[in-house]
């Protein structure tokens, strides 16, 4: 049986990879689930191509990023949803420590309104909308929460199926089905895992949400306002 001590070297190794502002900036640019070329990531992080290449190589070797070749270019993406969740959790922890400082900066002032309202968190929904939907699912007993584990009830199966969420496909994915994910701007959980990804996919496909010009930010459409107002009620 593995103990928490067994994971210490791996956690320490991961922490060292993330303890660099340039690498974290590149990772943050990939939190929308996209794959981006090395040159674009270098530009985002304000690094020279050679410096960015070295940082990206370390992240690939450490299992944080996946690399794929497209012609003469190399593209990078976050390796797993769990990796993205760890990055999101770190962002949440940063805000928590800021509040303990003598002059904390309120989240509402430090986060752009569109990004705080609705955004992607790798492949699922985050922000005020996501936290509200998760709370409604809990309050109307669509889900049961045990720590970070989330179980779907019969009422939840019926409710999400009626909205068009493909639960069969979500269960078939080789990843955690449903879990809590810490929301860094709201400091409350939203829905993660394959179920969270399926819910976001449904919202985008139904045109309830749509991307904006701001990276990761989503806009609730008039159609979405009507449907989401009735979500889990």
From TrEMBL:
UniProt xrefs under CDD domains: HTH_ARSR
> Which residue numbers delimit the HTH arsR-type domain?
3-98
* Any coiled-coil regions, as ranges: none
Q: Which GO terms describe its biological process?
A: response to cadmium ion; response to lead ion
Which is an annotated GO molecular function term of this record? DNA-binding transcription factor activity
Q: Which PROSITE patterns match?
A: HTH_ARSR_2
Tell me which SMART domains the record gives.
HTH_ARSR
Protein name listed in UniProt: Transcriptional regulator
Source organism of this protein record: Pandoraea pneumonica
């Amino acid at each position: 049986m593995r103990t928490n001590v067994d994971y210490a070297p791996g956690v320490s190794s991961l922490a060292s990879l993330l303890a660099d502002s340039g690498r974290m900036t590149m990772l943050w640019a990939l939190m929308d689930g996209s794959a981006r070329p090395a040159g674009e990531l270098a530009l985002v992080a304000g690094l020279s191509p050679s410096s960015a290449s070295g940082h990206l190589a370390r992240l690939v070797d450490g299992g944080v990023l996946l690399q794929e070749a497209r012609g003469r270019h190399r593209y990078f993406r976050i390796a797993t949803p769990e990796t993205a969740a760890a990055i999101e959790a770190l962002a949440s922890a940063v805000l928590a420590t800021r509040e303990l400082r003598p002059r904390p900066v309120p989240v509402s002032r430090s986060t752009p309104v569109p990004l705080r309202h609705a955004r992607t968190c790798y492949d699922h929904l985050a922000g005020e909308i996501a936290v509200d939907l998760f709370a409604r699912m809990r309050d109307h007993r669509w889900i049961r929460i045990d720590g970070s584990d989330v179980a779907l009830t019969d009422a939840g199966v019926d409710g999400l199926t009626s909205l068009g969420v493909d639960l069969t496909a979500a269960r078939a994915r080789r990843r955690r089905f449903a879990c809590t994910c810490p929301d860094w701007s709201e400091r409350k959980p939203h829905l993660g895992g394959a179920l969270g990804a399926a819910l976001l996919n449904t919202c985008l496909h139904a045109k309830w949400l749509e991307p904006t010009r701001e990276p990761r930010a989503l806009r609730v459409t008039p159609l979405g306002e009507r449907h989401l107002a009735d979500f889990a009620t």
